Amino acid sequence: MSASFDRRLHPVRPDLAARAYEGRVEAGRFAEGGERQVVRDCLDLRRDPRPDCGVDTQALFGETFTVFEETPEGWAWGQLGSDGYVGWVASDGLGDPVTPTHRVRALRSFRYPGADLRLPPVSLVSMGSEVSVVGQATTRGLDYALLADGTAMVAKHLVPLDHVEPDWVAVAEEFVGTPYLWAGRTSLGLDCSALIQVAARTGGHRLLRDSDMQEAGSGTLLGAGALETPRRGDLVFWKGHVAVITDPETILHANGYTMTVAYEGLKAALARIGANEFGEVTAVRRLP
Hints:
By secondary structure, the chain is mainly beta. It is 12% helix and 36% strand. It folds into 3 domains: 17-95, SH3 Domains (SH3 type barrels); 102-160, SH3 type barrels (Roll), CATH 2.30.30; 168-286, endopeptidase domain like (from Nostoc punctiforme) (endopeptidase fold (from Nostoc punctiforme)). Keywords: Hydrolase, Protease, Thiol protease.
């Protein structure tokens, strides 16, 4: 098996690989895979099928997940459709796929059993979650989107899948104060690269999940001196960390220093991070 296949992005194991890799790798068997959909608010994705294994990332409600193997213990191994991340999730968090029409634009929003905010909600979904709208209703002057699964959401919290925000950095700024959570990808807790991924998606940018992946292929690599005249939206990378420029003197990042999504002065952050955390900046990239 080629060492060039990153296990986070390629469904390849010594005993099993996706059918698309047949002839490219050696594996005990190859599987076509079947498409499923996340039916929990979010679903932890792990490297190994064990509850005590650390979480790599999270799948959001409505995202697709291609399953290549399921175990009797209730685990499914596969690949997330939104960013290609590979790993194990709980099988009971997956259901039959329904074609999405909208995604959640609010930081988070409730799903109700009917079109009435006075009903006890059935779940709380975060920005970037995808839903299938099949109808609409109005209750006491508030418009609701009726979903294919029989639930309802406040309509103004949703946008069509092709909606593009004019300033995705402003979306990232809406997360200020959100707790830092390693591998988290929701508005209840997320890490540095998830903040960038989720917010940039609203601006039409599909970025990979982890900071090293984003550093390797997001936008255009800027040359030396980029931080002398940075622009809003420039991504600043360290080994294992990413932040976004909000103005020439400020960054925004989900970080373990404040344990929140927070602003930090650029010069102060460069000094602090360089001395105590991730070392020197490794790259600055600009999205189109």
